[in-house]
Design a protein that fits this description.
The complex is a heterodimer of chains A (503) and B (321). With 503 residues, chain A is mainly α. Chain A has helices spanning 2-15, 18-36, 42-55, 60-85, 94-105, 109-143, 147-161, 169-183, 209-231, 246-251, 253-268, 274-288, 290-294, 302-318, 320-326, 332-343, 352-355, 357-386, 393-412, 415-433, 439-462, 473-502; strands at 186-187, 194-195. Chain A has a two-stranded antiparallel ribbon with strand order 1-2. The longest helix of chain A has 35 residues, at 109-143. Chain B has 321 residues and is an alpha/beta fold. In chain B, strands 1, 2, 3, 4, 5, 6, 7, 8 and 9 form a 9-stranded mixed sheet that branches. Chain B is globular and about 60 Å long. The chains are: A mainly alpha (503), B alpha/beta (321). At the A-B interface, helix 3, strand 1, helix 16, helix 19 and helix 21 of A face helix 1, helix 2, strand 2, helix 4 and strand 6 of B.
Chain lengths: 503, 321
């Protein structure tokens, strides 16, 4: 405990240095702007600014603090376009659109934006505190998580998503299946055999999450807007001055706390990221809400907005744990931060905290400060961002389209990706016409590839013996939980009905 | 983003002196994988190592996917004449060319620019593993290949698989009976080794630098022709332990096939100038690589020899006919 406190003191003395403090603020602000552009998420934000941070010849701790600020800011910013425009900036923002955008449509854009800012702040802060206290311990537990355990975790995630079932169960399942099918495209990581690539080399890599998200959601939404415009049914959105109230936050306290813990734990596991965390948190919250309230999820329920946001930011903090303590990146962005550490000749790993305390603890302290900075930057800007909606649609739609195209092109500079988001956009628009919900497609896509890879790894380890899936305690607990989230609500509602009938 | 890049380029240009090689504008290194792995490392060497020659730290971009096939195909179709970009490759990429994974394109379709250095295969176990040396491991491994779970960051048929397969074949075992687990990159494989999901990791020496000191893993053998020095001085080679298997990983860069001689030579001379400096050598060793400095024609000739060797190995392993 003393070591942690003195470490934190070192960290804060680094992070509160006026120059570094300014960098955190600049990073958070730049990150928010980058993240707010559709198609530009934390990964490309950090990747593109890394050589600049290096070129400016900052000391390593300052450069890292700047990049961490951008990372945090971009996570925040990605939500602005999700809520206001229904165009998620990255895969983890998909869950945020489900209730965030309906709130904006209802004239509560300000309330949605401020709620997410507060939920993110709490989620992020809880994650940093947990990371400070239990980081090294958790990291060693996390690496013990075997492929078989991941399979169980994915089963649990799928089970929590069963709650996403919209109007039609069949369409939800079909949607998840489409996602699973999209995930199989590309070179099979296990045997190196190309699947469903039809000889197109650009498909060998498979389809990037971001492309599916921007295509199916963003482009489809734009086509939908254009269609409404042509038909003249486009309603202008009411400008509102709504804002989150303290009473709202008090009502949401358990939702935010629960989701923060879920997010942090999933974030710590290497390989699973913020998208899985936000989906599981959303599903859990909907399950817990009870049959009456659950119906309002997806139509602008504030719990459905706060849960994935708290989880997603907590996961971003959690992902730092394996990176700093073991040198194993837990997500794409932390992989880039890891690259940044290496670039400054800082070797991450178990010895980082003892060998370079100013860097390790400085980064941790900058996360505390970054969270506060984001809240301070974001809350006053809520009104300004909400006014984005007053831009006439015939200017806004092409603008978003251009930004999305630029964003996607900057990832790898491959024109093929632009065709792909267009094609996926048209496909997504058809799905919308057929009243499919798009969230199961994305989740099928994200969870499907994780599920497949881990299942095959588990079976390679056991030499093809399926018993490996159920032979340790962690897996069994997860299967029991999966079973419980599916059947407990059914049982509870039956019991309630019986109780009602008995009276 | 373009705007931000512009600002960045402007800021960099404003703070640094006049570039020595002005003809290479906005240099870029493409790492054909996700960040954090060997290609990232290769690009970082060019980024820091060539900074004095180029007058700027080049931008590193990631083009993940399809075991580098995406980048290889892109630089053979649309960016064939891109004079400002180099793409990282390794012996693993050459093996993929040898086994036909890159489709219609082979080693004669691109221009080989320069190497970043050499790395060697490594046989790694967890610190508390019962295997103290390679002989102990191989005794179990060759008797019953399925008794040891091997894992690494590449698929079956990749160079990581090949390292294990060559060892096993050398000891008289059948690579097909091996329990090999493919992970998505070395980072995940290391996590699996530390977590006890796999027993042996066939990785690279270079990536072990930060982990050696931490003492969480033990390198049973280096698959180099001779012992390496520095932090690796205590690690015996596979050959010393009686297993005649080597795996050298050449790391370097190529460009599109239609780049003009003038532009190509500018890159080659930038690398040659860098090779002559102690700073480049320091960057190379700092990133865990050993000196292997070949540029231009010398590299092209070395690639031709390498490809011949790799095709033989691949044929012997049954990967191609």
């Amino acid at each position: 405990m003393d070591a942690i406190l003195s470490g934190l003191a070192t960290g804060f003395s680094v992070a509160l240095d006026p120059f570094n403090l300014m960098l955190v603020l600049v990073g958070c602000f730049l990150g928010t702007l980058i993240g707010a552009l559709p198609g530009l998420g934390p990964i490309n934000g950090v990747a593109n600014l890394l050589p600049i941070a290096y070129g400016l010849k900052f000391p390593p701790e300052s450069a890292l603090i700047l990049l961490a600020g951008i990372y945090y800011g971009a996570e925040y910013g990605g939500r602005i376009s999700s809520i206001l425009l229904n165009v998620p900036g990255d895969a983890s923002a998909v869950m945020t659109t489900l209730d965030g955008h309906p709130m904006a449509l209802r004239g509560e854009a300000g309330k949605a934006l401020s709620t997410f800012a507060v939920a993110s702040f709490i989620g992020g802060t809880i994650a940093v505190v947990l990371m400070t206290l239990f980081g090294p311990l958790l990291a060693s537990v996390a690496v013990g998580f075997s492929p078989a355990n991941y399979v169980a975790l994915m089963v649990f995630a799928f089970a929590s998503l069963a709650s996403l079932v919209g109007k039609s169960t069949v369409k939800t399942l079909l949607g998840a299946l489409i996602g699973l099918m999209l995930a199989t495209i590309g070179i099979d990581a296990n045997t190196g055999v190309p699947r469903y690539t039809f000889g197109i080399p650009d498909l060998l890599a498979g389809i990037d999450f971001l492309i599916v998200v921007v295509g199916l959601f963003g482009m489809a939404e734009l086509i939908h807007l254009v269609e409404q415009q042509v038909k003249g049914t486009l309603k202008s959105l009411p400008v509102d001055k709504s804002f989150v109230q303290v009473s709202d936050i008090i009502k949401l306290r358990w939702t935010i706390l629960r989701s923060s813990f879920i997010g942090f734990i999933i974030g710590v596991l290497p390989g699973t990221g913020a998208s899985v965390a936000s989906a599981v948190a959303y599903g859990t919250e909907k399950r817990l809400a009870g049959p009456e309230e659950a119906k309002s999820f997806g139509t602008g329920n504030i719990r459905g907005l706060a849960a994935p946001e708290a989880a997603n930011n907590a996961a971003a903090g959690g992902a730092m744990v394996p990176m700093l303590t073991l040198g194993i990146p837990g997500s794409g962005t932390t992989a880039i931060l890891l690259g940044a550490l290496l670039m400054f000749n800082v070797q991450p790993g178990p010895l980082l905290f003892t060998q370079k305390p100013e860097i390790a603890w400085g980064l941790v302290a900058s996360m505390y400060i970054g969270n506060v900075a984001l809240l301070v930057i974001n809350l006053p800007l809520v009104g300004l961002f909400a006014r984005l909606l007053t831009i006439p649609q015939h200017y806004l739609t092409p603008l978003i389209a251009i930004l999305a195209f630029i964003g996607i092109y900057t990832i790898v500079g491959n024109p093929h990706d632009l065709f792909l988001i267009t094609a996926l956009g048209i496909f997504g628009w058809f799905l919308r016409k057929l009243e499919f919900s798009l969230a199961p497609v994305i989740l099928g896509f994200v969870l499907g590839s994780l599920f497949e890879n881990n299942l095959r790894q588990a079976l390679s380890i056991s030499g093809g013996d399926w018993a490996i899936l159920t032979e340790d305690g962690t897996s069994i607990v997860l299967y029991i939980l999966a079973f419980a989230v599916v059947f407990a609500p059914i049982w509870l509602s039956r019991r309630a009905r019986r109780a009602a009938a008995a009276q | 983003m373009t705007f931000i890049r512009f600002c960045g380029a402007f800021a960099v240009a404003a703070t640094l002196a006049m570039p020595a090689f002005a003809e290479i504008t906005r240099p870029e290194c493409v790492a054909p994988a996700n960040p954090g792995g060997g290609f990232d490392l290769t690009c970082r060497i060019a980024q820091t190592g060539l900074e004095p020659q180029l007058g700027t730290a080049m931008e590193v971009n990631f083009m993940p996917g399809g075991i580098c096939a995406v980048a290889y195909s892109l630089f053979n179709t649309t960016r064939t004449d891109d004079a400002s970009a180099i793409v990282a490759f390794s012996t693993g990429s050459l093996l993929n060319i040898a086994t036909g994974k890159y489709g219609e394109f082979d080693e004669n379709d691109v221009r080989w620019v320069a190497t970043a250095g050499a790395d060697f295969g490594a046989v790694i176990v967890r610190a508390d593993s019962p295997y103290q040396d390679l002989s102990a491991l191989m005794a179990d491994f060759s008797k019953d290949p399925a008794s040891v779970v091997v894992g690494a960051g590449g698929s079956v048929g990749s160079q990581d698989w090949m390292k294990a397969a060559l060892l096993l074949r050398g000891a008289g075992g059948d690579p097909k009976a091996m329990r090999y687990v493919a992970f998505d990159g070395g980072g995940d494989a290391i996590a699996a080794l530390l977590g006890g999901s796999i027993g042996v990791y066939t990785g690279d020496m270079g990536e072990m630098t930060p982990h050696l000191e931490a003492g969480t893993m033990r390198v049973l053998a280096s698959m180099s022709p001779e012992r390496l020095d520095g932090v690796f001085a205590d690690i015996p080679t596979a050959k010393e332990q009686g297993f005649d298997v080597e795996w050298t990983i050449m790391r370097g860069f190529y460009m599109g096939g239609s780049v003009s001689d003038e532009d190509y030579n500018a890159w080659v001379s930038a690398f040659e100038a860098a090779y002559a400096t102690p700073e480049f050598a320091a960057v190379q060793t700092g990133k865990g690589l050993l000196p292997l400095n070949l540029a231009g024609d010398k590299l092209t000739a070395a690639i031709a020899t390498n490809m011949e060797l790799l095709r033989t190995i691949a044929r012997d392993a049954g990967l191609i006919n």
